[in-house]
């Protein structure tokens, strides 16, 4: 029931065309979700410059193309994560603006690139094997309208590499720190900056890394304040949260 | 080696009083940490309106009093977390501005309350048993110069309670969502807001809650974007990160 | 906004005392929860012969007495689970109908005992150490208006004991099977009956029972169809679900 | 030995055609299992409109065809779960009534479709990746003689979608709630209905979802009463238990 | 229903005193358990020289005394495991033959000591902290009519101590090997003997011993053939199984 | 140093041909292992009618053939476990007595079948998927000179099937009980027999069976006395231990 | 059999007082352990300046005093770890050289302090709560004859503190790095030194630190080469291994 | 800024060509990492005879060739671990000194073999399946300039095999003990030697070995002093640490 429909209902009631019980029933019977929608719509309007995101894993290329088409119809940016080469091919065939971020295993289709916010997000990562996850975060961050600084291969075993890039890191509004194995990078970085650090454990490692559990636990137990954590390999999730924070930092708001 | 000392060193070199090798050695031998200190100091200056925090658990009341005294000497706010009644008593005896936040198991000693930032942080929690952790987050948020809205007992089993408070939650700059048991609250909240949600699993529950592991896993696996997670029962950590984000949103910066 | 208030609002609108915009606003602004309440109320009305349940653990005797008082004011049955002797004492002092189920660690306060449904629920348990959990289930079942058959100490190591009681078990509408250690009882029972079996793992055991995890896993992996599982030691949860099912079986409905 | 055979035996004894010892021997020598069979038969008779179910995984197509043939000989419905395309092909080749439920990875072969019970079972699921498990539950429910409502893609991150379908959900006799990742759906649903909710965790997710463990734990720790849980991905088990409950609700019984 | 009763039943049927339906009903209604009892009784007769065992943990002294009294009435040996000083006191007060095995945390009450079997069982243990569990095994073994050799403190870190006792170990019919920490003793022993080795992990250790899990896993993964394992700290279980095996080795049987 | 060599050494010392220090040195320097060998040899002689066993997994067909050839040279029985079709082919090509036990994934090569012991070992298993592990146990038992009774598909969900075979099970000297999923079979069996039960958990199952962990824990926590456990899927280990026990029961010994 | 006894035996044989068979028997029958002892003695002689260590936990004060007395009789250093105040009191009462290292929860009793080796071992630790474990390592290191440098509170969250002490750390022969929580310290240190780093996880932390498991996993997965790990809280084990290494570095050897 | 550049800077300052502020700025602005580099360089100089190591897993052959080429340009030894046949082929094609250690899954490219240190490292392993990990350790040890003794297949189930080689083991400066399954070898070895033992758990085993976790836990809980542990299958890590220790033992140092 839209606002217009509700107004008509009330008018018909005032005009005596329908009994009061019917009006009451209409409002009561109105599924919460409809009113809920209004509310949800409001807040979706607030964030509508954020692209809807398609999780590619476990979807067929056809399904992904179909969902992407629907989003593009509504004039939205498209970000597809966790794709295979097949997904990329199918999307490229259909939509010419398709950009395939090979390393990040993502596709973006932007009708018109979003204007970039002032300030930037740093995506730092410990080792070269962490790059796919770091890139998923970076691509997410960019497609959502943020500038990004990629700082790679600064694992804690070679501290000088990290310290050499610290100035840049300290200038970022948000830092996404990606690491597998012992997952120490976010703790060391967070000890040196005053901005929020979003830690992303990766499944990089073997033996007692248990597919990223060792890094995850290290990050949850960080002795440095200001670290929050996302799921193992969840570059997208970190990028999304970082963009929300950077938006708070740079967009106009109360 | 301070900047003054370095200048003197150079002058003596120029004056021929010391050989070049000695200057080079002085700079090379200079412990990285001293130069590091400079850098660290700079960024600590940037955040010096943030109180240093004392983790009370496992420290004697005497130790806590001693550290607090040192912080107060330097004119800093004091926040002590995870305290016992004994800690509180010892601090109150020594420092008259001591405020004991019983439920939060914290003490704050503020020389002068920080001016509060515009915008606020919402601390929502699922059940009454989650209150101590939620209060630790709320007290942290407040002592760091933020306004806070406490919204309690809105667990997902009674959805209407949460929906009734949604408007307030949506107005917050950051939401801290605290829950034990199945830990679903942050996911449901994050689906309805466009701001960052920091999820705090609590150790509330029994049996297969495994001291908060069930809630932790649920939060790490949230199907809603924009959720980041801290350690089980880590109300302070969530409050600290939320304050960093709110500071980005409201303080003057690039 | 109650139905009565809504009706008055509409009448005043029809009478021209308030503008349409105000009515629309009232309904739209109405917190979703209020309409939600209506819906929730409806379904709570459907189940209003079910007592609200107070989880005693972690609440002070005063808190429990207060909540119980509020429930009794509204004419509801009271069930308090996981209580200590102190809770029981405080409740008995205040409410004379208080019944303390020592073994079940529960208190019930019934203004008027609910009429019992036709059909019964069997609560079977493996060992004497499982009795407190079994009794929590049985007391829950009874206070919610069901007849219960308690069948104790029929662990699978002495199969004849279980077989001797099988006829009774087969007559029940629902079976709650409580077991610790290897948790085999629900599988064996479910193989012999055509009714739903709700399995309750208990934390009874030592070593590699891991506080009930062994029994929980056994029950989740039951080779017998028709077994569903609740949390470790969650006698109340099993009793609640069993009562819902027995209500379906015996109450009038479509 | 069927009841008829036993009656004939007794008649021949009364008629003097066989000695008493032979009768006694027949009953005594009858392995417990035979007498057990009688008992089991009785209760199997009670449930004989339930199809025997073949777990396809790990069986060869030949084995599955053979077991199915035997069941069909006895006039029973056939449900084969966890099948591959090979199983389906082999069954279709042999039995023309074979229906291959591709998404559910099941085959059903029904001589004569069972009359459907009054009342229905709702199968709700959180995401599109949970569909195969949800469909396994739905197909099980249908082949066992129940009507089913499928309600898909109502994950808690988009609460309005779930609320929009709540009315239907509330009308169901039993709800099967299927979810991976954080597994919050059953808790939210159970908070809004008065009927039993059977929760099915799925292995959908990555990283710290640990193949469905995160969802499983969330469901076991649900803060909403009336939730019982089955094994990860066990759509069949949920469907079977739901059918047992719906049968109690709708079939004639004491 | 005994054979005699069944015969009478049949005679009365033949004589026309009771209808066929009644006979059929009697046989069908005969609880499986009754026939089962016969079977169970038989095998209990076979093992009636084995004492019934009372698990003391979680039982009150009164309960234990009561069960012990019942067993003694039937002329059986009594073994109570996992007792406290209170249990021991209560039993000693009531039964004068009570023997309190302090280290083993057991009480035995033997009317008449069983004659000891030829052959013996070796109970070997790694460290002095493993002694309570080893003694529980040894006391069990003795009360069940076996001779026992106790060989203590022969952990693998001092291999010579174990080798020095190897001759005795090799002469045993069964070896119970008790160890905490890394749990290597059973593997080393089993490599040097041709008799069955029953491994008992103990909860002795700290940190990553996880209450005996490290030892348990080591024993389950033993590279030496002939090792079987019981639960952590389950000295009684090992003693019971060892006695069963020694009984096979030494009692008269086919 | 053999006994003969030692004697010669002593003689040369007595004859004054070598100094005392040299004799002492010879004995001291003698690697413990040599004396150890003597001891080990003795006990290997005691068990030399037991075949050496080759674990095929992870070995090439060539390696397996080579080890088998060496064993056959020494006149020993050969048992190869965990083989592939390739292993079997390679062995059959080389040794004509090769028997490939397809289901058990084993090969045996017996020069001369061992005479079978009196008494037999029962191998019972819960489901048809557990057969490969049960067969590995059965083939091991047979090749080591024991008679075996295979009793399949008697899972606890259909208790009558197990009870029907109980008489045979009770006659066995040792019972090997193989089960996956909830692993209840050994507990139920052990409650009905007086002989040792060796429980073998299998990796059969899905979801929260965690590759056999659920069954393993159930077996370790068995409420029935007399159950010992081997590693998941370790049919060979169970067969080996069972044969050791049956040998004690039937071979001549003190 | 000591060397002296063996010599006497040989002399008596040479003198014809005993037959050769008796000598051979003596050596052969000599428990392997006796000869083993010789060997073990040899290598214990090599390390005899290392004190025997008494693990105090779980031993009574009397037991500890007794073992200490025996060690002192043999002129050895005494180190008792994991003691309570009671242990310390009992030891001090008996032995006046007793030194109670309160923080380290150790007692040492040194007849004569060992001369210290050249070179030193650095014991670095992350936080003040890790001190007891670090001190256990330091005291162990000292009592075994090594010089130690204690470097405390240099956790990775304040990198400058660690870098300030790096020069000292780099000069050590071995570094023991002690840390709880996220356990990152050993990785960062090992990246900056060329000497072996022994990592000691502590149980310091809460929530998902799981009693030190998070730190343990981080250390096992260190991205820096040269890190080896000991059990959680095992300061003694780290000190012992470090002393072995420092002994290799500084003692005379091939 | 290299030392040369710094010297030039100072000279220009002394010559009055640049102001003091500029010099100060140059040193201050110099990224910490540059000064850090100096320090790091110093310690890398100390260890520059150690080859840089390339972890092959997850890198393409091209990437590996490229990194190897860069290392060779700088005159360094090359060690590539965890390679596939493709890596080996690509390296061999490019660099003729390439040596492919098939079993160890490593490639080494040595311009000039390092002179071997006095003293040796023993690499002992339990079973033939542990060989690849043991070989990775051995190859690492050798390429870093150490002599190695390989001692294979001395698992604790055949103790005599280990004792037979003990003399050699005792002569080593460091022992690397590699074992899967129950992981007992390092404990037994460490009980017999006075040198450091580095334990390497392997993922060899099945069922409850959990990919090496059982062995890992056994090693962390070793009852023998002097054992430190590396990650599962981390032969390289053990070899690296062993070489560091052997270098301490044999190279000239304070």
Describe the structure in your own words:
8 copies of one chain form a homooctamer. The first copy, chain A, has 254 residues and is α/β, with parallel strands linked by helices. Chain A contains 11 helices and 9 strands. In chain A, the strands form 2 sheets. The first copy, chain A, has a 5-stranded parallel beta sheet with strand order 6-5-7-8-9. A 4-stranded mixed beta sheet of chain A has the order 1-2-4-3, sandwiched between helices. In chain A, helix 6 links the parallel strand 5 and strand 6. In chain A, helix 4 (61-73) packs across helix 5 and helix 6 packs parallel to helix 11 (235-250). The radius of gyration of chain A is 23 Å and the shape is globular. Chain A starts with a helix and ends with a helix. Mean pLDDT of chain A is 84; it is low at 28-49. The B-H interface holds B 3, 6-7, 10-11, 13-14, 20, 23-24, 27-28, 30, 32, 35-36, 38-39 and H 3, 6-7, 10-11, 13-14, 20, 23-24, 27-28, 32, 35-36, 38-39.
């Amino acid at each position: 029931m839209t606002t217009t429909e509700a107004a008509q209902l009330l008018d018909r009631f005032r005009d005596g065309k329908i009994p009061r019980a019917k009006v009451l029933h209409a409002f009561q019977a109105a599924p919460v979700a409809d009113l809920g929608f209004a509310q949800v719509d409001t807040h979706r309007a607030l964030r509508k410059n954020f692209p809807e995101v398609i999780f590619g894993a476990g979807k067929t290329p056809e399904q992904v193309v179909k969902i992407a088409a629907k989003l593009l119809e509504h004039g939205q940016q498209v970000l597809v994560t966790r794709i295979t080469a097949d997904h990329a091919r199918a999307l490229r065939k259909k939509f010419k603006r398709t950009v395939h971020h090979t390393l990040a295993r993502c596709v973006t289709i932007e009708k018109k690139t979003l204007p970039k916010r002032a300030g930037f997000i740093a995506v730092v990562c410990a080792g070269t094997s962490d790059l796919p996850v770091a890139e998923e975060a970076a691509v997410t961050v960019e497609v959502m309208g943020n500038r990004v600084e990629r700082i790679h291969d600064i694992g804690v075993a070679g501290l000088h590499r990290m310290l050499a890039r610290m100035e840049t890191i300290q200038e970022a509004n948000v830092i996404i720190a990606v690491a597998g194995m012992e997952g120490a990078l976010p703790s060391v970085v967070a000890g040196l900056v005053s901005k929020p650090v979003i830690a992303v454990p990766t499944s990089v490692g073997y033996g007692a890394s248990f597919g990223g559990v060792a890094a995850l636990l290290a990050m949850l137990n960080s002795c440095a304040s200001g670290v929050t954590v996302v799921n193992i390999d969840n570059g997208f999730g970190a990028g999304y949260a970082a963009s929300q924070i950077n938006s708070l930092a740079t967009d106009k708001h109360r």
